[in-house]
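This entry is retained here.
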Amino acid sequence: MAASTGVYVLEKGEEALIGRAWLTQNAAQSIDVQYFIWSTDNIGVLAAEQLLSAAERGVVVRVLVDDFLIDAEDRTLLLLSAHPNVKIRIYNPNVTVGVGFWKRLKNAVTGFREINQRMHDKTAIFDGIAGITGGRNMADEYFDYDHEYNFRDRDVLLLGHAVSDMSDNFEEFWNSELAVPVEEVLDDEASDISPHDIRRRSAELHSYAQDPENFEPEVRKAITTATDFFPELLQAMHWEEVVFLSDVPGKNDGKSGLGGGGQSTDRLIHAVTNAQESVLIQSPYLIMPDGGIELMQQLADHGVRVRISTNSLASTDNIQAFSGYQGQRADLLAAGVELYEFMDDPNIRAQLINRYPRIAENDPIFAIHAKTMVIDGRIVFIGTFNLDPRSANLNTEVGMLVDSPEIARQVSASIERDMQPGNSWQTTEDFNPDFVVGRGKRFNAWLNRLLPMDPIL
């Protein structure tokens, strides 16, 4: 038990949000967070306010966020980082933060791999004891709070031994030359920040969070009463030997250009290659890297059943990625893979989101974003790794790998529910559901198939 890790799968966005918020409010010493996307929508702003509140009571807060899709204003980043207990670093800042149009264009021309090598990691570590990792970024749509588009995602809460490995990985990235303090990235603007500016921004954030229109009383109450459910949560946890998978900063040495693989890639390939009976995968994007289809064929030839749950053209948020899958779909089917494409309006939408009746009138789109694999009904991976060349060769990834029939049964049941008729279409050699979308979206997908983008999809 000493080397074991407690594992609790977070299926719903609301419970994943409440878990993060409760741990943030109850952290006593440190909070380390690492994200690919941090938006300035409602969830993103509330998360920033919660971290600032923790810093104001003495908790040391470190935030490492990838540069590519961050949408926070430069001044906001500087104002938050100005608090003595808050440190913010930007991973690989060559696209967005402090980068003007001409510099961005130069970086794209002279360092194509560098601008495509991103930190896709998503971790949150509290006092070095509890950690959360999985598919969710910090934005409304990952926590069931977007009124028009929500992701079907999956995280995992870890307690104990594996969190030490998670912390070690965070330290490696934090101290990497690719992680640059925001004050260095924005050195010209940093000198203009005054104590008055800092106090004003802090007051604005706290005022925003106090507004019940922004921070619903029901959610606030759920966070404060979460302690009451901890005995039940601990009882529901599975204590297992967990491996925390991660990559090194930069993914690989870059000598193979847009290829090269990585440590997480090697571990997952090894796990799949050793499958004896079944492989069940859920991935929002499905573009097999080099050798992937051949591996699927080998598994099928040895009697291994391979099923994959992914997005349909109707549900996908990434036309470019879907076009790559579209080009491989026939080959995957010919290799013996069973394909299930998620509907944009699945029958289980009310089961996926507790507050669905409040947003039903908006008829929101649903989409897969979970990155999960179950092998032989016992080996489970939950993390950030998409089944595509970008995750295999360019983006750094993290996740949990565990041998547990109990967790495997739980996760398999969840994925298989997503795959049921009424929630997904089963694609065959004679049928695919592309026709349900309009001509414009179909044409866009076809057009993208003509572009040589597979290595960066």
